[in-house]
């Protein structure tokens, strides 16, 4: 660089740069001066001084940490106990189960003896599991064994009973028809299942073979068989129908005992014929006993009837009310069957009367006695009525005519009372020892239940009748000899 250029840089560039360096030096000096504190101030706020004045160190004696086994960390509140293995021998498999130590343990399994007898009668034997337990006192003690039944097929139906039988098939081609046997808990008024029925068991039969249904033991219901055409896949129109009922009570449901039912036979009839037995009509009329001029029920059809009488069918629990003329009707009662009707109305005695459905349409008149007949008559002559006991009014007929001089004996009854006619009514006479010309006798305040009646005339036994009495009800029956 030439001398001229150096002089030019010195006198021109340096004056321009010099203020910048001066300003930078002054700023640095001022910053250091503002942030620089005396030594006394630093000591006053030193970390050591602050620690001494504000922090108090509390020293305590540390307790040693106990040794904890890994098992203590398990969340099990029950205390652990050591267990010895127990040998379980099941032919041919051998396994082991835990057993707490004890002295002379003995396994006792209580079991119903009837259940054990039932198992022994089953074919094929039983699968058993032997549990052996050894005594802790001495090694000479023999192991003790308890048998447990593991036959699942057998235990599955312990509370079930078998219902088996056959169908009396009509002359049909089995390839074109099939049958269905079902057990329902209830049926409708037409003798078939309805919307309220529940099927407890069912089986289809495509050929003439026996049926087998498994039902809960001691079940009541209705066993019905139907035959359909193979084209009726929805089972809407049965062509033949058959039903099994209790022989003692045809209208009642079938009872399945614990031992089951065997060799049942279901007779199949055309559907129209089956429904015909359920299309019966019972027409009745209720009249006031005091309104009868001669006290004869046959004249009740000409007498004004009682309205608002509640009539119950004891066997089916069906109920109807009499209209303003005393008439009522009951449909669907089975033919050739017996029923009991209960009549209730305020101010009148509650009575029970048996009826029989012998034809498709049946008519009958019923006489309802007022309560005053008893409060002002029988209660005074025979003693007050006990509402927990029963009363029986009976009339003995022979060839449709009341039987006189008939003696009635009942083993369970101390006294049988007889009635005599008094103008238009009959009243009990405690001095009588046989029936009069009206053939009437009664049992007063008798224990409910079954009673056997023996009817004699001139020392000869004419008939024996069994009656069932309900508590608090007056029963009216007619005994035909």
How is the secondary structure organized here?
Blueprint lengths: L2 H33 L3 H6 L2 H8 L29 E7 L2 E7 L13 H9 L6 E6 L10 E6 L2 H5 L3 E9 L8 E8 L14 E7 L5 E6 L2 E11 L10 E5 L9 E3 L4 E7 L1 E2 H6 L4 E8 L21 E4 L5 E3 L5 E5 L5 E8 L6 E7 L3 E8 L3 H11 L7 E9 L2 E2 L3 E5 L6 E6 L2 E5 L10 E7 L2 E9 L2 E10 L4 E7 L1
Parallel strand pairs: 5-12, 14-20, 19-29, 21-29
Antiparallel strand pairs: 1-2, 1-3, 3-4, 5-8, 6-7, 6-9, 9-10, 9-11, 10-13, 14-17, 15-16, 15-18, 18-19, 21-22, 21-26, 23-27, 24-25, 24-26, 27-28
Commentary on this structure:
With 481 residues, the chain is α+β, with helices and mostly antiparallel strands. It has helices at residues 3-35, 39-44, 47-54, 113-121, 152-156, 271-276, 372-382, and strands spanning 84-90, 93-99, 128-133, 144-149, 160-168, 177-184, 199-205, 211-216, 219-229, 240-244, 254-256, 261-267, 269-270, 281-288, 310-313, 319-321, 327-331, 337-344, 351-357, 361-368, 390-398, 401-402, 406-410, 417-422, 425-429, 440-446, 449-457, 460-469, 474-480. The strands form six sheets. Strands 15, 16, 18, 19, 21, 22, 24, 25, 26 and 29 form a ten-stranded mixed beta sheet that branches. It starts with a helix and ends with a strand.
Mean pLDDT: 77
Counting DSSP E segments of at least 2 residues, the number of strands comes to 29
Number of helices: 7
Beta-strand level of the residues, as a percent range? Answer: 35-45%
* Overall geometry: elongated
Reported for the largest beta sheet, the result is: 10 strands, mixed
Q: Compute the gyration radius: what is it?
A: 50 Å
Low-confidence stretches: 39-43, 86-96, 102-109, 125-141, 143-154
End-to-end distance: 168 Å
Question: Structural class of the helix and strand makeup?
Answer: alpha+beta
Task: Assign a percent range to the helix content.
Answer: 10-25%
